[in-house]
């Protein structure tokens, strides 16, 4: 490599690193998601039937179930960029597919970058951050929600944004973006309370932002319910939405029992695969050796995600949405420890 070029890179290390990491994440995301995006049939969503509701919303029809209707950010953004995409793609179906793909792609890359930054902030080497981001991007859940007309990418972003910003004490950033995070998805609302585990965020300004966030959620839902297409559906109104959520309570024990079946266990871990086992080993290892300081805000994601996924019966996607930063951090910690162990053994063999 040219010495002059090397000096330029070293002089601008932060920018060079950012460009390299983002390029790497874009490459990994594209290579893992394009095939499913290309082959996905909007008419046969299979296990991703909620995508039908989001497609309708992107076309201006909010006559869908309320718990889908309130997740409006991505469908509305799709409706905005679709005319631009239409200049490149003529088919209406492909315009919808590509519009959702571009938005979800951008959100997932940003989420992967925040996960990369979180792992570095914990004090682990940069290569561990690359491994962690790769685990996230290669997950079947991440691939599915990037490649198809879903809105879950924002739920994933909300989780990693709250956790990374809380861990690094980015108080002003959280206060500013909290109202947006509240609107990403109804499952994101419990995340707004996580920063309160830290004394840094127990301030008047944060409580004001929290109040604005919940007020924004209520106000936005009233506006959506007033749309003619939404008004003509049977599942209209906050009371109806609340009763639907409370109805899950009667099925909680049933959902819990299902976890101990082959199907239930598969659904629960399918977003993590064997990395879930590595995470358990990493947690035990860190408890014994205290390798990195992992705070309550990160650890709370697992029991929170477990409870809510049991409540709703969505043991696959929903548990992944909440728990992925914690699971991946502990899995990477275990991988790092194993690699250090191998390095020591190799060094010992060479010196014998």
Can you give a write-up of this model?
With 352 residues, the chain is mainly α. The protein has one domain (11-350). It contains 19 helices and no strands. It has helices at 3-11, 13-39, 50-58, 66-69, 73-85, 92-121, 126-138, 140-147, 152-167, 171-184, 204-225, 228-231, 238-247, 252-258, 262-269, 275-289, 296-299, 301-312, 317-350. The longest helix is centred in the C-terminal third of the chain and has 34 residues, at 317-350.
Distance between the ends: 37 Å
Tally of alpha and pi helices: 19
Report mean pLDDT, rounded to a whole number: 85
Low-pLDDT stretches: none
Instruction: Domain count, please report it.
Output: 1
Question: How can the largest sheet be summarized?
Answer: none
Class per helix and strand makeup: mainly alpha
Say how many strands there are: 0
Rg is 22 Å
Q: Based on Cα principal axes, name the global outline.
A: globular
Quickly describe the structure.
This protein is mostly helical. It has helices spanning 3-11, 13-39, 50-58, 66-69, 73-85, 92-121, 126-138, 140-147, 152-167, 171-184, 204-225, 228-231, 238-247, 252-258, 262-269, 275-289, 296-299, 301-312, 317-350. It is 74% helix and 0% strand.
């Amino acid at each position: 490599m040219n010495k002059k070029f090397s000096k330029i890179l070293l002089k601008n290390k932060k920018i060079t690193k950012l460009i390299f990491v983002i390029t790497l994440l874009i490459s990994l995301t594209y290579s893992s998601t394009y095939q499913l995006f290309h082959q996905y049939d909007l008419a046969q969503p299979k296990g991703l039937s909620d995508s039908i509701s989001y497609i309708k919303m992107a076309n201006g029809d909010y006559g869908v179930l309320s718990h889908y209707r309130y997740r409006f950010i991505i469908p509305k953004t799709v409706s905005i960029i679709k005319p631009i995409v239409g200049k490149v793609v003529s088919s209406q179906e492909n315009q919808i597919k590509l519009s959702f793909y571009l938005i979800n792609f951008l959100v997932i890359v940003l989420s992967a970058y925040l996960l990369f930054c979180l792992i570095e902030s914990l004090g682990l080497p940069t290569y561990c951050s690359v491994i962690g981001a790769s685990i996230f991007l290669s997950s079947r859940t991440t691939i599915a929600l990037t490649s198809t007309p879903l809105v879950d990418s924002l739920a994933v972003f909300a989780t990693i944004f709250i956790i990374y910003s809380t861990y690094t004490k980015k108080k002003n950033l959280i206060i500013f973006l909290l109202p947006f995070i509240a609107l990403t998805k109804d499952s994101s609302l419990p995340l707004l309370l996580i920063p309160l585990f830290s004394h840094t965020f127990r301030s008047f300004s944060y409580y004001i932002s929290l109040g604005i966030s919940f007020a924004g959620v209520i106000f936005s839902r009233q506006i959506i319910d007033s749309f003619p297409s939404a008004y003509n559906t049977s599942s209209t109104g906050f009371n109806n939405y609340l009763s639907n959520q409370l109805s899950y309570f009667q099925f909680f024990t049933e959902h819990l029992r299902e976890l101990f079946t082959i199907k239930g266990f598969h659904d629960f871990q399918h977003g993590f695969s064997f990395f879930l086992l590595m995470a358990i080993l990493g947690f035990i290892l860190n408890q014994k050796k205290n390798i990195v300081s992992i705070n309550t805000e990160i650890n709370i994601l697992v029991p929170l995600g477990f409870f809510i996924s049991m409540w709703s019966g969505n043991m696959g996607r929903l548990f992944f949405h909440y728990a992925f930063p914690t699971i991946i951090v502990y899995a990477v910690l275990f991988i790092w420890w194993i690699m250090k162990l191998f390095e020591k053994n190799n060094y010992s063999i060479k010196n014998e």
